[in-house]
């Protein structure tokens, strides 16, 4: 499912993850939303599939915007962010990257991570 970036704003984040279609789109998402958690994933990645429902819940329950980047479709974009393994999660606050984690994180840790920047 693809969500239009215009459906959210800094004041209201989308309740479903946004599927990013390139660098310009990711730049727009990061600049238009206060807190953005970017999931660099691959369809063949088991931990990525396990993380998907966690990110869906996070999108619905927090003020953060969840963005998803398919590393197979956007290899240059993943490379630009130093993604060496999937899943890699990059957190942006106020338009700047503030954290990056490789590997699936537990739901409670992700929620705390996001809430540290949304409160």
Automatic annotation (TrEMBL):
PANTHER family hit by this protein: GEO12009P1
Gene3D superfamilies listed in its UniProt record: Glutaredoxin
InterPro entries, sorted: Thioredoxin (IPR005746), Thioredoxin-like_sf (IPR036249), Thioredoxin_CS (IPR017937), Thioredoxin_domain (IPR013766)
Record-annotated disulphide pairs: 45-48
Site (Deprotonates C-terminal active site Cys): 39
Superkingdom of origin organism: Archaea
Active-site residues per Swiss-Prot or TrEMBL entry: 45, 48
CDD domains referenced in this protein's UniProt entry, alphabetically: TRX_family
Site (Contributes to redox potential value): 46-47
Domain Thioredoxin: 5-119
Organism: Natrialba hulunbeirensis JCM 10989
GO cellular component: cytoplasm
Keyword field: Disulfide bond, Electron transport, Redox-active center, Transport
Location of the region described as Disordered in the Swiss-Prot/TrEMBL record: 1-24
A GO MF label: protein-disulfide reductase activity
Regions of compositional bias (Polar residues) in chain numbering: 1-12
Protein name: Thioredoxin
């Amino acid at each position: 499912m693809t969500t239009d970036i215009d459906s959210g704003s800094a004041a209201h984040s989308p309740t479903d993850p946004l599927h990013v279609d390139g660098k310009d789109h990711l730049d727009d998402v990061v600049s238009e939303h206060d807190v953005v958690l970017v999931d660099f994933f691959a369809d063949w990645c088991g931990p990525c599939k396990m993380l998907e429902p966690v990110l869906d819940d996070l999108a619905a329950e927090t003020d953060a915007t969840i963005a998803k980047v398919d590393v197979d479709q956007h290899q240059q974009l993943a490379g630009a962010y130093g993604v060496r393994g999937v899943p890699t999660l990059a957190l942006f606050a106020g338009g700047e990257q503030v954290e990056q984690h490789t590997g699936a994180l537990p739901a409670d840790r992700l929620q705390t991570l996001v809430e540290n920047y949304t409160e």
